TrEMBL record:
<dbReference type="InterPro" id="IPR050909">
    <property type="entry name" value="Bact_Autotransporter_VF"/>
</dbReference>
<feature type="domain" description="Filamentous haemagglutinin FhaB/tRNA nuclease CdiA-like TPS">
    <location>
        <begin position="2"/>
        <end position="71"/>
    </location>
</feature>
<dbReference type="InterPro" id="IPR011050">
    <property type="entry name" value="Pectin_lyase_fold/virulence"/>
</dbReference>
<dbReference type="InterPro" id="IPR008638">
    <property type="entry name" value="FhaB/CdiA-like_TPS"/>
</dbReference>
<feature type="region of interest" description="Disordered">
    <location>
        <begin position="312"/>
        <end position="336"/>
    </location>
</feature>
<keyword id="KW-0732">Signal</keyword>
<dbReference type="GO" id="GO:0005576">
    <property type="term" value="C:extracellular region"/>
</dbReference>
<dbReference type="InterPro" id="IPR012334">
    <property type="entry name" value="Pectin_lyas_fold"/>
</dbReference>
<protein>
    <submittedName>
        <fullName>Filamentous hemagglutinin N-terminal domain-containing protein</fullName>
    </submittedName>
</protein>
<keyword id="KW-0964">Secreted</keyword>
<dbReference type="Pfam" id="PF05860">
    <property type="entry name" value="TPS"/>
</dbReference>
Length: 819
């Protein structure tokens, strides 16, 4: 009765009193129950603790299930059997244990609207076919709930408190569909007063809904936050709910629907997870230490609209880790804050299959929960969507954001990322955005990605597990990172990834690294790096209409292609285009197994322009077919510290330069090698080392060396190993012309002007032909009186000729020169 007291006086806290109630009525405890040990109350008709009930025991089990006497006497505590229809275990009063004690309420339907307190102990509300308890020395060491039952329900509308302890709300329902199996609308506390917070688990089994609309608190005011796990088929974090595991010395852990990336075998992965707009998850460090870990995961559908906090400590510590993901459909418009006032920002991972980043008004698939909750788990869009403002807000807070896709054949989605809205960081310290796609990355037209405050580091990583993936940038793309670094890479793909500009575009960053093939075509494109610009892949680009195709680096600029490099400024529309390549600390273009082609339809200010303010320019290639190795047309190359051009081909023209201007304060070294052919009597009519026409080469402080070597079997009379025509070569130091051939001409100079301190011409025709030929050309500067001119054909065959007809302006000295 209400005012009655029942007290169990037991030998010690390990003692267990079994009260098996028979009859047709349920047990009603309306007064006070006390025990210094453990008390079992088993009644198949139900157990009710009324509003005025006061229970103070060492341990308590109240259940509609039964236990065999034999098992009980052996200390084997397995509760089994079904209670009578409609039987429940209900607490409306106050249930309390001594320190380290336990309370177990078990049946088919269990509810608490009162208060349950188990300091440093365990509270278990369980609905299932069997419940097995492991007791030791008066305490509950473990519990397992097995087997499903029809209409299973565990709900808490009151207060459950297990300071420094654990709370488990577990229900195993059968064919529950969208019916709720675990429902918390009250408060569950497992706060820590010692080193860290306690543990709270809501487990809905394989069927039904786990609903969290109340407070789940595993915080610690002295140590690290605790751990909260919600697992089940479908999980709903309702608006206004609070799920926290904060800590004074570090954040705790909250797992909703699975572990990190759904790979924790100890946590059941949910099918669907919905977090409403005003729901909050918090794993922050409140004073010192790093933020904790918070995960929302589902196998099929996650709708994240709430707020997740994983902030670093106010005095010290970095931000924590947050993941809001789905193996298939992810809808994201929520907010994440993993910032750190006194440390580095944390990380936010989003991991669906295909996903599109959209702007406000375009988020058609990110719907809100309905009032009755019957269809909140039904996606309103087939593909994943992320609201751009959700990403921007976290970048502004210094949180790094990772959008990762994982392809699946089940729905035909291959793991693509599409950016259809601007992502502009406008506040806060430096942050990083990573787009990591199993397959392709693409943007819409007129999209901007960048920062106006603080650096934004951007990684575009396509082809993580897929071959032949691509990064495709839409028209008028603008990537401007405010000094942040850009990395575009092939990830773990077995083959190269291509980066394609659809139309006018701009990239600007601190260090820019493109580990992929770069395709540019048709309009204006600019790739700029405040520091180093590195492209490791084939580069193909063309522009016209007076537009500019530009590559600029404040540090070193390097294009390292396993294939070819081709940049062309065409004569189209309103005028010829321009190609600009500039590296303040050096420019290197290297085509390891392909051609280098730098062509412009028009010269002068239009055309191809390569400059290096404080470093050398180096262009090299190796091609193993009949293509021209290196072709430069209407190109302007200037460098403070020297220019190196090194072209190699098997049976084409190794280096071909037309309308080219080279200017440097250092050495100029141009080498063209047409490799020997070893195919017997094969004749090649057009293989040469270096062809220079209509060009100018000038060095104010270095030497100029041109070396051309033609392959064997070359028989065309108009082809020379080194051929200079209608060009000007000027240096204050030495000028050296080297050419080696089999049967044609080693060095041939016509209609040109040579000005240097000394001139060395070394022409060799191994079999027959001409060692060197200088015709209709001028020798100026230190060469005018011929005293500093050295001509050699050493190594040529006996029948080889040397030609100097009309080559020397000072005819009076011709005989001396010939001698």
């Amino acid at each position: 009765g209400k005012n009655n007291t029942v007290q169990f006086v037991q030998p010690n806290s390990s003692s267990v009193a079994l009260n098996r109630v028979t009859g047709a009525s349920g047990s009603q405890i309306m007064g006070t129950l006390k025990a210094n040990g453990q008390v079992f109350i088993l009644n198949p008709n139900g157990v009710l603790f009324g509003k005025n009930a006061r229970v103070d025991v060492g341990g308590l089990v109240a259940s509609t299930k039964n236990i065999s006497t034999t098992d009980f006497m052996k200390g084997q505590y397995t509760l089994s059997g079904s209670g009578n229809p409609g039987a429940q275990v209900v607490n409306q009063g106050s249930l309390t244990t001594s320190k380290g004690g336990y309370i177990v309420l078990a049946g088919e339907r269990v509810s608490n609207s009162g208060t349950v307190t188990t300091p440093s102990g365990k509270t278990i509300l369980a609905a299932g076919k069997t419940v097995t308890l492991q007791l030791d020395n008066g305490g509950l060491t473990s519990v397992s709930v097995n087997g499903s039952v029809v209409n299973a329900l565990v709900e808490n509308q009151g207060l459950i408190s297990a300071t420094n302890g654990q709370v488990y709300l577990t229900a195993k329902g059968q064919d529950m569909l969208l019916n709720t199996v675990v429902n918390n609308s009250g408060t569950v506390e497992a706060k820590g007063l010692a080193n860290r917070g306690g543990e709270i688990v809501l487990n809905g089994g394989d069927s039904g809904v786990v609903s969290q609309s109340g407070h789940l608190l595993a915080d610690s005011q002295t140590g690290q936050g605790g751990k909260i796990t919600l697992e089940g088929q479908n999980i709903h974090l309702a608006g206004g709910s609070l799920t926290t595991a904060t800590g004074k010395t570090g954040g705790g852990e909250v797992y909703v629907g699975g572990g990190w990336q759904g790979q924790d075998s100890h946590i059941k992965n949910a099918s669907k997870v919905v977090m409403d707009k005003t729901a909050t998850v918090d794993v922050s460090a409140t004073e010192n230490g790093n933020g904790g870990t918070a995960v929302l995961w589902s196998d099929d559908y996650t709708n994240f609209r709430g707020t997740v906090l994983a902030k670093g400590g106010a005095k010290s510590g970095d931000g924590g880790r947050v993941e809001t993901s789905s193996h298939r459909n992810l809808q994201t418009s929520g907010a994440v804050d993993a910032s750190a006032r006194a440390g580095h920002g944390g990380e936010w991972l989003l991991d669906p299959t295909d996903v599109t980043i959209v702007g406000a008004g375009a988020d058609t698939g990110i719907g809100s929960a309905t009032a009755d909750g019957t269809d909140i788990f039904t996606p309103t869009a087939s593909g994943g969507q992320i609201l751009n403002s959700s990403i921007v807000n976290q970048l502004n807070a210094g949180t790094s954001v990772i959008v990762k896709t994982s392809g699946t054949d089940t729905d035909g989605e291959t793991g693509n990322i599409t950016v259809n809205a601007n992502i502009i960081k406008t506040a806060g310290t430096d942050a990083k955005l990573t787009l990591l796609a199993d397959n392709n990355i693409s943007t819409g037209d007129n999209v901007s990605i960048g920062a106006t405050t603080g650096k934004l580091n951007l990684d575009l990583l396509a082809g993580n597990t897929t071959n032949n993936a691509s990064i495709s940038l839409g028209k008028f793309i603008n990537i401007s990172l405010n000094g942040g670094d850009l990395l575009a890479d092939a990830g773990n793909s077995a083959s190269g990834v291509s980066l394609t500009f659809t139309n006018n575009g701009k990239i600007k960053g601190g260090n820019v690294t493109l580990n992929l093939s770069l395709g540019l075509g048709g309009y204006a494109y600019n790739v700029n790096a405040d520091n180093d610009l590195t492209i490791n892949g084939s580069v193909t680009g063309s522009t016209g209409w007076g537009a500019v195709l530009g590559f600029t680096a404040g540090g070193k600029l390097a294009m390292n292609s396993p294939g070819s490099i081709s940049l062309q400024a065409n004569d189209a529309g309103n005028g010829g285009g321009r190609v600009l390549i500039s590296g303040d600390k050096g420019v290197t273009l290297n085509a390891a197994a392909g051609t280098v082609t730098l062509n412009a339809a028009k010269a002068a200010t239009n055309g191809v322009n390569i400059t290096s303010g404080n470093g050398a320019v180096s262009i090299t290639n190796m091609v193993q077919d009949g293509s021209n190795g290196m072709t430069l047309t209407n190109a302007n190359i200037s460098s403070k510290d020297g220019i190196v051009l090194n072209g190699t081909t098997f049976w084409g023209q190794a280096v071909v330069m037309s309308g080219v201007n080279l200017t440097t304060g250092g050495d100029v070294d141009i080498t063209g090698l047409a490799k020997n052919l070893t195919t017997g009597a094969l004749g090649v009519a057009s293989s040469s080392g270096v062809q220079l026409s209509g060009s100018n080469i000038s060095s104010t402080g270095g030497n100029i060396t041109l070396t051309g070597t033609a392959g064997t079997h070359v028989s065309h009379p108009s082809i020379s190993s080194l051929q200079v025509s209608n060009s000007t070569l000027t240096t204050n130091n030495a000028l050296t012309l080297n050419g080696t051939t089999e049967t044609t001409t080693g060095v041939k100079v016509t209609g040109s002007t040579l000005s240097a301190a000394t001139l060395n011409v070394n022409g060799v025709a191994h079999v027959q032909g001409t060692g060197f030929s200088l015709a209709t050309s001028q020798l100026l500067g230190g060469l005018a009186d011929l005293t500093n001119v050295s001509l050699s054909s050493a190594g040529s065959a006996a029948g080889a000729q040397n030609v100097l007809d009309n080559s020397i302006v000072n005819d009076a000295n011709r005989d001396t020169l010939l001698a």
